[in-house]
């Protein structure tokens, strides 16, 4: 019996409609009917009652359904574990993370973590949904994300395991004038509107900064100049002198030293962010002496041995 026959049966059982199941399985109805019949011949009894609409499972089909679901789930889980184990044994660790962390945080962090210069890392820059999909499928073993206590913890809800590996501060910055003064001080000196470079409202950093912006608007108006979910895009706009953006401080250290950007406003205008590492539930560490430091810490904390949820309070979904 082929795995695809079980997947065909599960599609029909879920959708209760052969036409919709054909679309889901990317085949013609005649081909799907033949494959369901082949499964029934192998199993020995009819599994689907074709005389009703929508189609129904026979009593034997209803009894077979949970077994088929378990078989398919177990096979794919075993496959993910085998892939993860093979890749770990081969020396390559795969990470998914937001673009900004891939650029400013991961390179130095990885250099500090690895004890063997030959240890390889592969990075995929992705949003939160993609990171979760990559981890659950076994395509990536780890994900790095921002966390904040005011934002719901989406990754922890997915039962992925994690630990804090860093922190940064989201600070308001402006381009500087020739004499080193902020082009857009916070609050505005002339009492006018502050030109705002904002994150998309549905992004993680957009949700973090929304409360900060709301508080500022009680004191002076804000004029939205540019909006993006990407930290890098807001950084470019800030450097061009288009307005004030809230950027991770670790990402703009070079610009702060060079005097091309300056922090504006009071300390309460900033927001602290934690950086968390989440591990795939299928990842199996090998315990070699030259393994990266974070794997040892994950093992000591139980994060790579137990399947409990992470305890971060808020997780990035874009950035």
TrEMBL record:
InterPro entries: LysR_HTH_N, LysR_subst-bd, WH-like_DNA-bd_sf, WH_DNA-bd_sf. One of its GO terms (molecular function) is transcription cis-regulatory region binding. Keywords: DNA-binding, Transcription, Transcription regulation. SUPFAM superfamilies: Periplasmic binding protein-like II, Winged helix' DNA-binding domain. Residues 1-58 form the HTH lysR-type domain. Signal peptide: none annotated. It comes from the Bacteria. The keyword Transcription regulation applies. The keyword Transcription regulation applies. Belongs to the LysR transcriptional regulatory family. This is HTH-type transcriptional regulator YjiE. It comes from Pandoraea iniqua.
